[in-house]
Amino acid sequence: MDNKTEQLADGVWRVEVGLYVNAFVLANDGSGDAGGLTVVDTGWRSGGPRLVRSIRMLGLDPRAVGDVLLSHCHADHAGSAARFASSSARSRVWAGAGDLAAVRGEAPEPLAVADRRHATRLGRLLGRVFPTAPAVPDAQALNADRELDAAGGLRVVAAPGHTPGHVAFLLPARGVLLAGDAVWNVWFASRGPRFACADLPAVPATLARLAGLDYDVLAVAHGPPVTKGARQRVASLAG
Ligand SMILES: [Zn+2]
Q1: Confidence at residue 115, expressed as pLDDT on a 0 to 100 scale
Q2: b vs e for 207-238, b when ≥16 Cβ sit within 10 Å of the residue's Cβ?
Q3: How many independent structural domains does the chain possess?
Q4: 65 Cα: distance to centroid of ligand 1 (angstroms)
Q5: What confidence tens digit (pLDDT) does each residue in 142-152 have?
Q6: Domain of residue 130, CATH code
């Protein structure tokens, strides 16, 4: 197996598609691609070929990717979503309602339009120059608490803060939380940089909500998973 790909649980794989950037591949039937695959976050646009290659290296068929779920609209997560939507897989792309317009290319990314109560000055500046992901005009809204058939069952969890429509994904049958950018694990688990956050006041309640869920493995978009005391780590970040 590629050393940049690791299995987190039955039918759940982390693929490092760029430096400190993860995508996740889920088997809908919990084992292989017979029931279709779900991808959670895609990395940058430039990492698309690597993600497709990694899916093949796992012995799975990239054309089986039926759904692409985005934790949020940023280009290091949504960068290859358009590629899957226009590929022969014709994947459906989903994002939280608050980020949907940005994913569809109908609105700027949230940092670019955040006000000073919600984002830092640096963040608002960066939001205007940060590259945006290729638009997915027919992306659809993912509502909180929605359940999907992936890896034994997947539940959408509202996790606003990093962006207003940020969502996380809980896999109760696998004991895994895919937290997107609600938690970072670059060198150590953290809330991530303040400047990258478009709704700072929402962060504590989101972390408290995530800490209250049941999982053993905390998988994040940036950095390796947290496998020891994951919920306690999130609770401590909630402060
Ligand atoms: Zn982000």
Answers
A1: 95
A2: bebbbebebbbbbbbbbebbeeebbebbeebb
A3: 1
A4: 23
A5: 999 999 999 99
A6: 3.60.15.10
